[in-house]
Amino acid sequence: MKYIMFTKHLEGLDVPGIIAALKSVGVEGADLCVRPGYPVHPENVESALPDAARLFADEGLSIPLVTTPGDFIEPEVEYAERLYAACGEAGVRHIKLGYWHWSAGMDYWEELDAVRGHLEGFQRLSEKHGVQTVVHNHSGLSMGLNSCAAMNVVKGFDPRHIGVFADPGHLSICGEPIELALNIVRSHLSVVALKDLIRQPLGQKGGTTWRTRVVRLGEGYGDWPALLRAFNAVNFDGPLSFHSEYSGEPVDTVIDLARSDVRFFTALRNAG
Q1: Per-residue exposure over 189-199, b if at least 16 CB sit within 10 Å of its own CB, e if not
Q2: CA 54 to CA 6: how far, in whole Å?
Q3: Which residues contact 181 (CB under 8 A, 6 or more apart)?
Q4: What is the DSSP string of 219-244?
Q5: β-bridge mates for residue 196, sequence order
Q6: pLDDT digits (tens, 9 = 90+) for 43-77
Q7: Are the C-beta atoms of 147 and 185 separated by less than 8 Å?
Q8: Which member of 69, 127, 257, 264 has the greatest number of CB atoms within 10 A?
Q9: pTM of the entire structure?
């Protein structure tokens, strides 16, 4: 399994800086954040992504996955064709979409039909450019909040072109046991995110609200030994993206925490 790191919280670093950070963390490549404000973004992706891939390769690293803007959910978006073409040229294997959300008043099944209609367009782009579109399970009101919901979205699509980006952290928030969760999506399982989450109550007049917070691996709800058993059960050997979503921390601290997460998970694998 290849270790990669999500670059969302390496804000302010240029591509050489990102490469240096990843080498310091001890991963083999990037889950590259391709969003406005980052070195590679939707407006320059045609040239910047292949250039970045060459710089990565020169340092013995790769870019197996790019994460697109959170609102990238329709294949008709102006930059969609350019982004997929650039990923194909750069050797990027997986493209993570944004998020479709359910809201009160929606009919879930009608919305699901609309989502799957969009995914048909993404499947055509994937097939044309030799990449795979992946749907990330994200707790909350996401249409792919857990494995059951994500499978509703991707079932029936060709797993060569459409996959699932499983996130044990968000699955733990939803309460879906990880061994069951990965079994549900095993036909389309392509990438796994590594982060640990907890829920914290926030006092509020008239009731309690909750917030979800990222903590270091091993300090949240994640059942990491069960995750390793699940990998063996479904023969998973895809990229592992250390998400390192330590929002609000300085970049140097994010790098330190990511390094700690890699050590934690590597020790767990070696102990098994």
Answers
A1: bbbbbbbbbbe
A2: 19
A3: 146, 147, 166, 168, 171, 230
A4: SSS--HHHHHHHHHHHT--S-EEE--
A5: 215
A6: 999 999 999 999 999 999 999 999 999 999 999 99
A7: yes
A8: 257
A9: 0.95
